[in-house]
Amino acid sequence: MREIKVAVVGTKFMGRAHANAYRQARAFFSPPLAPVLHLACGTNEKETREFAEKFGFSGYTTDWREAVGDPQVGLVDICSPNDLHAPIALAAAKAGKAVFCEKPLARDLSEAKEMLRAVSDAGVPHMICFNYRFFPAIRLAKGLIEDGALGEIRQFHALYLQDWGLAPGLPLTWRFQKERAGSGALGDTAVHIVDLARFLVGEVAEVTGMLTTFVRERPLPGGGMGKVDVDDTAAFLARFSSGATGVFETSRVALGRKNFMHLEVNGSRGSLFWNAEDPNWLWFYSLDDPASVRGFRRIMVTEEVHPYAKNWWPTGHVLGYEHTFVHAVVELLSALSAGRNPVPSFVDGVRAQAVLEAVLLSEGSRRWERVPA
Ligand code: SOE
Q1: Which of 240, 251, 257, 278, by CA, is between 20 and 30 Å from 162?
Q2: Are 172 and 285 within one domain?
Q3: What's the gap in Å between 162 CA and the centre of ligand 1?
Q4: Contact partners, residue 356, CB within 8 Å, separation at least 6
């Protein structure tokens, strides 16, 4: 079987999600190109060694340049803080390696475009990890919309609420620094619902938004307090190119909400909704049902006919968050093997970043802003 050696840069939440995905993808999907966990890369030597041992990497390094430069590595997987996405992707492109990058693609639109230019000029395959696209229920929703089951799409609603930003004593990590993260909840969580909006409904043409920072100072690791210069919450209205309307809201300080992503799409003939905390069920309402029994039906998306389902367990044996990364990795490896670019690519990363940029502009101008082309 053909193999590709992978370097995963980042050993925290996303590094673990990706490392696990390569192992599961190989075992459950037998992709035509088998991933080999070659190098783990993190900043803390002890943690990186333990991570490499646990997930079965052949080796580890604390220098991302070494990981990218290793001649055996064919695929560079970026799970680092946002400020390192561009330097690592640019170096990987220069070295002729395929690149898989966590979201948001970059800290801002110009950096994201620079990354897209680098991979395009180098002719290397590129993919962004918008993992929520890979829930079977989201794929079913897309299929229903494309088949016209909802008629003309009129409204899109998305809420993505978390509360980890309220944890007492939470230090001023990179996620609270504009210089390192680019933005706060906007780039971290709103970017997912922007991507899902584009995936399900199409391009966003214009937005008007509002960003807020409630917790303005956080403890510095060395003592004292430091200033937070990114948003805790973001809310915006949108108009899609199709004429549909969108309402988006995200927060990392919504007390009681953990990973509450609620999506709803309303069309002229049907509606659907879905929640990431209950991800195996898609709710669907159709005018084609007889009036006497019409109502939202709750579809358990685990049948053999449903996307990805038959590679896992018998019907009804539900899937979770980690499976989305496995499915993303299967797309990545299948595309690399077939010589096509994977989807979603850096183009999707740039398009999503353009929407975020327009929201930031609108917060400053207090007006509607066009999403840059
Ligand atoms: C933020 O809390 C976060 O970890 C995001 O960074 C991830 O992309 C999201 O999937 C879960 O929430």
Answers
A1: 240
A2: yes
A3: 9
A4: 104, 109, 183, 186, 187, 190, 191, 194
Average pLDDT of the segment spanning 139-157: 98
Taking only the tens place, the pLDDT of each residue in 252-300 is: 999 999 999 999 999 999 999 999 999 999 999 999 999 999 999 999 9
- 68, 99, 132: which is the final residue of a domain? 132
Query: Both 195 and 260 in a single domain?
Result: yes
Q: 189: Cβ below 6 Å to ligand 1?
A: yes
H helix runs in 81-190, sequence order: 85-94, 109-122, 136-146, 178-181, 185
What's the CA gap between 71 and 90, in Å, rounded? 16
Could you tell me the two tokens for 282? 């898609």
Residue 168 has pLDDT above 90, yes or no: no
Distance from residue 148's CA to the centre of ligand 1 (Å): 32
> For ligand 1, is residue 82 a contact (CB within 6 Å)?
no
Share of the chain above pLDDT 70, in %: 100
Q: Which atom of ligand 1 is nearest to the CA of 189?
A: 5
Ligand 1 contact, 102 CB (< 6 A)? no
| One domain, residues 20 and 36 | yes
Going by alpha carbons, the residue nearest to atom 9 of ligand 1 is: 189
Q: Which atom of ligand 1 is nearest to the CA of 162?
A: 2
Work out the percent of the chain whose per-residue pLDDT is above 90. Answer: 99
With CA atoms as reference, report the closest residue to 88 among 208, 161, 7: 7
Distance 185 CA to ligand 1 centre (A): 9
CA-132 nearest atom, ligand 1:
10
Q: Quote the mean pLDDT of the chain.
A: 98
Q: Are residues 165 and 122 in the same domain?
A: no
Residue 332 lies in a domain: no
Residue 330 lies in a domain: no
d(CA 35, CA 33): 7
